[in-house]
Amino acid sequence: xxxxxxxxxxxxxxxxxxxxxxxxxxxxxxxxxxxxxxxxxxxxxxxxxxxxxxxxxxxxxxxxxxxxxxxxxxxxxxxxxxxxxxxxxxxxxxxxxxxxxxxxxxxxxxxxxxxxxxxxxxxxxxxxxxxxxxxxxxxxxxxxxxxxxxxxxxxxxxxxxxxxxxxxxxxxxxxxxxxxxxxxxxxxxxxxxxxxxxxxxxxxxxxxxxxxxxxxxxxxxxxxxxxxxxxxxxxxxxxxxxxxxxxxxxxxxxxxxxxxxxxxxxxxxxxxxxxxxxxxxxxxxxxxxxxxxxxxxxxxxxxxxxxxxxxxxxxxxxxxxxxxxxxxxxxxxxxxxxxxxxxxxxxxxxxxxxxxxxxxxxxxxxxxxxxxxxxxxxxxxxxxxxxxxxxxxxxxxxxxxxxxxxxxxxxxxxxxxxxxxxxxxxxxxxxxxxxxxxxxxxxxxxxxxxxxxxxxxxxxxxxxxxxxxxxxxxxxxxxxxxxxxxxxxxxxxxxxxxxxxxxxxxxxxxxxxxxxxxxxxxxxxxxxxxxxxxxxxxxxxxxxxxxxxxxxxxxxxxxxxxxxxxxxxxxxxxxxxxxxxxxxxxxxxxxxxxxxxxxxxxxxxxxxxxxxxxxxxxxxxxxxxxxxxxxxxxxxxxxxxxxxxxxxxxxxxxxxxxxxxxxxxxxxxxxxxxxxxxxxxxxxxxxxxxxxxxxxxx
Length: 698
Description:
The chain is an alpha+beta fold and 698 residues long. It has 10 helices and 39 strands. Helix 3 (461-477) packs parallel to helix 4 (499-514) and helix 4 (499-514) runs parallel beside helix 5 (533-548).
């Protein structure tokens, strides 16, 4: 079965801070905000422990997700020092996620025991704030709840000149914080992994839009240049970082870029297999007056696809003196019908056989908008009796007998694609790529692959749950079905590392928010391994009722033993499931195969199983079980012929530009594409696209 590529995605090792400012200018006097006057979710105001400030304190409920939210006014944009007064009379840490204006600035920040509930302590961090109202939310990250909250002191320092952002406090992808080479500032520096794509990402706050100089302090002890792609809010430029003579010799390299008012993302990503230099800090200074030059007009607008209720448009990219284009607007008349960051857009919700005329404009990071493009006119396709999209045609799915059926009881087969891990390849799931999947590939289903380990859900539950929410909405808007994949892989025991509790938390929120949708399937475990079927079945018996309490109708997909091989990869077979099925209705069992590794024995197991139990192939590849090396299209076609004959739905691994042969796009395709057509597809991508596009029997 597919194994983890063992990439390491490291979050910032610090306890705070987006971003950290090393030298603060004069600050306004701190404002004290009492917890008892804040917004409280799942908690009460009490006064039974002495030593608190104000009229009392907040005792939160003992569960993950309870929070207190304060609101304070900042006189100007800048950096705030936030001091949280608390008491923790328990014997264990009670971690909390601290967010400012909805942005997480401290993940699982420790609030360690204070010795008694009447012993109060203060924990301090810094974060960017905007002029005017700001919200600070402290959310319990564990089942023990938050500590008792007493107050928040907020002290704001404005930053009229340059800001310094330490690399060790940024978001790090494939790199580590070290301090073994002298001369750095702050607490250390970032040592990039020696791979293409390793990166450090800063969040930079600007009081107003305008041009800025971004200065990177670095050391490169080799003789080889280690260039970085400097991306500001998505627009990128390449900067050289040549050797400095030694790892203890630090130099600076600068680029100029346009910043938006408010938060900006500055990403420094390695472009070669040598990785990046050692990165110490980023200094940001306003370089000039606001930009007033409009981008060029988007070129050659055209219609690239239509359905009975949608029109997909494409155009040639605009350019701007700032070096990047923020987004594009599509208008019908004077009405903006789509805003996208790429050069394609799909307008949905249209009537069948209706004609529409559009123009496109571009906006730069400062908000300057280009003149309108030439007009493009397109007509939607005629309506069909079953509807224009897979969901329109089939509605709410259910398991009837041994097959997946639509809401009218017709047996159907879904065909589609799985994402790669959304902690690594989320950039491959954007407006343009999902439009292509729905309209060019004509996929019925998108599998949202959320890894639990390997830098996935466990590293930041809020972030990854929100990514899944967003991708569900993206699939829904395009009329595709979505498989919510709890992608446990290593360890293979579904109970390990408290995964059952985490799964219950995750699926409860997903089911509560999306239970009115007709296009979901829940895959409650990806590839269990190293444990008997009885343990997998026990896990299913505990997680399924949690989902059903919030969503009684959505089909649930249950993983099988041996990396979802129905036991074959661990010297068993389908009989253990057939003879001892999960005690639940509206469920199917998953099977995974990789054709170059899994031959006739696996194929025959799938065939037998499909005659005894409901089966859904939620992952397969035309390569070996690692998703790489040569394709075996002949064996793959034998599987597809069987699945077509027995109406077994399937999803291919994977819709990304990973370097392995199993990723459908060539490396570097994401995020800008093009995704439609075959120009950026590997051989496996071309092969599977042809088969996803075959007419559906709906």
